[in-house]
Design a protein that fits this description.
241 residues, alpha+beta, Phosphorylase Kinase, domain 1, D-amino Acid Aminotransferase, Chain A, domain 1, 2 domains, five-stranded antiparallel sheet, 15 strands, 29% helix, 34% strand, globular, binds guanosine-5'-monophosphate
């Protein structure tokens, strides 16, 4: 398998084509961005930590019966994945109120949400990823009705799997964002699952151990990701290396 051309450079990852049209290479860079690219920084080791973290999470999800695009790690910062036709949609589940939910609805921060809340957003930085619902998706042909049902079903199944995985590691899965894509007639989980796209709080102290550390200028961003990885059993080289 040979790396060919750059297909797309996102804010934290670059996607490359390979000599196999069904496979792509994801390169997790050290770049970190927030607020639709308004705040940007380079964080040492982040590409490597997120590549390994993502591989661990995708393998856990596969083992629990969730179909994902992940194939294998290729290098410190690169993984091989299936070439999906991505849907322009973000699926968010919230177990605890915070972030844009609190800003939008004026509800208290830190409330347990029972049942958890599911939201769709349109993936569009220029429009600041506006919230959408099933009707927008159908009318504008962003996905079919069965695909909508499948995204909801998979996203909630992932919630059950990951809430437990994190809770057993002393962490609360506050909320997270998933993206799906089509592959040979099936919908697979694509993109990544790392602390860049979810919120994780220490179960006892509620300390933030995710990208909110970057968004809110709290520092220790990669150290927090490594702490989460260490608690889950993700293989990470010593940070002193
Ligand atoms: P919120 O809507 O509160 O800003 O985000 C809800 C959850 O989805 C958070 O865990 C946040 O990290 C994730 N999320 C929402 N939109 C994006 C996005 O465009 N990029 C990334 N990396 N995560 C997102």
């Amino acid at each position: 398998m040979k790396k060919l051309a750059e297909l797309y450079a996102g804010k934290a990852k670059t996607v490359y084509t390979t000599n196999d049209p069904d496979q792509l290479i994801l390169h997790f860079r050290n770049d970190t961005s927030a607020f639709d690219g308004e705040k940007i920084a380079q964080l040492d080791r982040k590409g490597m930590v997120n590549n390994r973290f993502n591989a661990f999470m995708m393998q856990q999800l596969e083992a629990a019966g969730i179909p994902t695009h992940f194939d294998k790690i290729l290098s410190d910062e690169e993984s091989l994945v299936k070439n999906l036709e991505m849907l322009p949609i973000e699926c968010v589940v919230r177990n605890i109120s915070t972030g844009s939910l609190v800003r939008r609805l004026g509800v208290e921060d830190g409330l347990d949400l029972e049942p958890p809340i599911f939201e769709f957003f349109l993936k569009n930085d220029e429009l600041h990823d506006p919230m959408i619902n099933d009707y927008h998706i159908i009318t504008f042909n962003w996905a079919s009705q069965p695909e909508i049902e499948r995204m909801k079903d998979l996203t909630f199944r992932i919630n059950d799997i990951l809430k437990k995985l994190f809770f057993d590691a002393g962490l609360l899965l506050v909320d997270y964002k998933l993206e799906f894509g089509r592959y040979q007639g099936e919908l697979l989980l694509g993109d990544e699952f790392t602390p860049d796209g979810c919120r994780l709080w220490d179960a006892k102290t509620r300390e933030k151990l995710d990208k909110d550390r970057f968004r809110q200028g709290l520092g220790g961003v990669v150290e927090a990701y490594e702490e989460v990885g260490r608690r889950l059993g993700v293989e990470l080289p010593s940070s002193k290396a």
